[in-house]
Design a protein that fits this description.
By secondary structure, this protein is an alpha/beta fold. The chain has one domain: D-Maltodextrin-Binding Protein, domain 2. It is about 25% helix and about 20% strand. It has a 5-stranded mixed β-sheet. It is globular and about 55 Å long. The protein starts with 9 loop residues before the first helix and ends in a 16-residue tail after the last strand. It holds the Pfam family SBP_bac_11. Keywords: Signal.
């Protein structure tokens, strides 16, 4: 049974996040979908250039479980539109399943997996900036987008926070 946490300032934390049920939201970070790989153990000339090529690559795939990872769920939903054969083909190879997309970068960095699917750009960039030989691969053709964070989109009925001045043309 779940219980509400006993926090003195709970309203101060959650109230700014509350929005009307019919409020629009907009992603304020996003990343193109791709796969992660280890540059130290991969030949750039042999990297897959299509989703079908990726699914047929020899090696180990690290895949996040869509039942426990929002990024993986978004990826699965997008791939059903982009290439419905990708996921069944991927399942024919050696696959490690992680409960979190965050673990994929580590599995690829340590050599336990050859490809992380989906590749999470922010995680790969952070690891690469720390000296890990990780990079992203982007198949040709259609790719999806993973949104990370969303923010309420101000409407005429909602007050715009001072830090959220948006202009559109």
């Amino acid at each position: 049974m779940l219980a509400d946490p006993e926090l003195e300032n709970r309203d101060q934390i959650l109230e700014p996040l509350a929005t009307p049920e019919d409020a629009a939201h907009v992603p304020f970070t996003w990343a193109a979908m791709g796969y992660s790989y280890n540059e130290a153990s991969s030949d750039p000339a042999s990297l897959p250039t299509t989703w079908a090529d990726l699914a047929q690559q020899p090696g180990v795939f690290a895949v996040a479980n869509p039942n426990s990872s929002g990024a993986a769920l978004t990826f699965v939903a997008a791939m059903e539109q982009i290439d419905p054969e990708f996921l069944p083909s991927l399942g024919e190879g050696e696959t490690l399943i992680s409960d979190s997309a965050l673990a994929l970068t580590q599995l690829v960095a340590t050599g336990e997996a050859d490809f992380g699917i989906p590749g999470i750009e922010a995680d790969v960039a952070t690891a690469a900036n720390a000296g890990e030989p990780l990079a992203m691969g982007y198949p040709e053709g259609e790719i999806g987008v993973l949104t990370s964070f969303i923010a309420p989109w101000p409407t005429r009925r909602t007050r715009r926070p001072p830090a959220c001045s948006c202009s559109t043309s």
